[in-house]
Amino acid sequence: MSRLFEDVSLRGAVLLVALFAGLLVMPRFAGDYLLTVLILILYFAYVGQAWNVMMGFAGQLSLGHALYVGVGAYTAAALFIKFGIAPWIGVLLAVPLAVACGAVIGFLAFRFGVAGVYFAILTIAFAEFFRIGFDHFSWVGGSAGYFLPVAQYTQNDLWRLRGNPTMFYYIILAMTAALLVLCRLLLSSRLGYYWLAIREDEEAALALGIDAFRYKMIAVILSAGLTAPAGVFFAFYYNNLFPEQVFHISRSIELILAPIIGGIGTLFGPILGAFLLTGLAESLTNMLHAFGVETPGAKQVFYGVCLLAVIVFLPHGIWPPLRRALGLGPRDEPH
Amino acid sequence: MAPLLEVDGISKRFRGLRAVDDVRFAVREGEICALIGPNGAGKTTCFNVIAGVFPSDGGEVRLGSERIDGRRPDQTCKAGIGRTFQLVKPFVGLSVLDNVVIGALNACRTVPQARDRARDVIEMLGLSPKRDAPASALTLPERKRLEVARALATKPRILLLDEVMAGLRPTETDQMVSLFRKLNTDTGLTILLIEHVMRAVMALSRHVVVLHHGQVIADGSPEQVTRDPAVLECYLGEEVQ
Question: Residue B3 sits in which domain range?
Answer without folding.
Answer: 1-44+53-80+204-241
